[in-house]
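User: Good morning. I'm curious how pyridoxal-5'-phosphate would be positioned relative to this chain. Could you predict the structure with it bound?
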Amino acid sequence: MNNGNNIAFLDLIGPHQELEKELVAVFQKALRTGAFVGGSMVEEFERSFADFCETRFAVGLNSGTDALRFALMAAGVGEGCSVVTVANTFIATTEAISQAGALPEFVDVDERTYNMDAEKLREFLEQQCSVDHNGKLISRRTNRVVAAVIPVHLYGQCADMDAIQELAERYNLVLIEDACQAHGAEYFSKRENRWKKAGSIGKAAAFSFYPGKNLGACGEGGAVTTDDEELAKKIRMIRDHGQAKKYYHDMEGYNGRLDSVQAGILNIKLKHLPNWNQSRRERARKYNELFAELDTNAVMPDEPSWSKGVYHLYVVQVENREAVQSALTNENIGTGIHYPIPLHLQKAYTRLGYRRGDLPVSENAAQRILSLPMYPGISEADQVRVVEALAQTVKGAVVQRLTNVSA
Ligand SMILES: *Cc1c(COP(=O)(O)O)cnc(C)c1O
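Assistant: Good morning! Here's the predicted structure, ligand included:
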């Protein structure tokens, strides 16, 4: 039996109720001007999102998936190329690679941060690739030109970008950030001796505004950020059927635009994002304190000194994950697993030929990770209930194991 109300995994209602008048006014504005696709609300949002990310340009798109795909295409990554990324991410990362015409290849992650392990990337580039007679870096596994690398800033925390950027420069790889979970996250670059915003580090970055993201639309949305004017221009063309002006098509493109109603909504919500992210950081700190007080054996998230994460998700590791998750479900506490099967072991990618054991850190994490309720303003009382419920199950498991040993 449960002893309390629902504790939701995330809150898609509260922030919209608070902002309801302003959000409805956006729709009214669209109705009265007839500007449904493109127009001033999209341009305003692109300006303010670029400012927020500290980049020169932001291009509004219909999704994070297309943001990744268009960034690759605009950077010339496609047929005959392979793109290095991680396996513990949402499949959109690799769908975008395949849809651009390239092939995904995986390197393992750091066991504390769950993000791309730069040492593993170095090993891959040094030991599993060779340089051909044209001076191109060829992956021996796929026989393709290694053209790009996509680190994912998973759970709202930046990957260790200095090390990755250095390798990308040395091997002439296009560096694209998957920042779909990291709106507002920051990374301290030792190379530049300053904090940098997620989305401002690589050649381009992809953001998603799917409703559950830290900055979410009331529908679908995405964006590419970049300092590269040519790249931004190309992506504007790709999102709009390859046209530079109406009905003059320099190439085939896609229908990948951002709605103006979504752009107007995003612009209003963007003003609150710094506070929301701050609240997520405080709630994460509270979880850390609570976990430290109760002896749970759960592995808490790690935030290195060079990182300011925005806790899109608060993820712990537990040994008996299935039992812990069902105990929390019985207590009406929402949880998630991000993600239960690493991409290299998904049915969709059997054709890539990876096997269990190829990426041990990702595979081990996938068995143990559990995402706990996290959203701006989650109450301390709810967090206490979550941690207590978790502690009971985990402790139970420890007691049981000890009993077995002595028996
Ligand atoms: C959400 C997400 C995407 C895809 O974004 P959509 O807007 O849903 O297409 C890509 N990568 C990661 C890591 C994501 O979390």
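The first helix runs from residue 14 to 18. The first strand starts at residue 57 and ends at 61.
Let me know if you'd like a different ligand tried.
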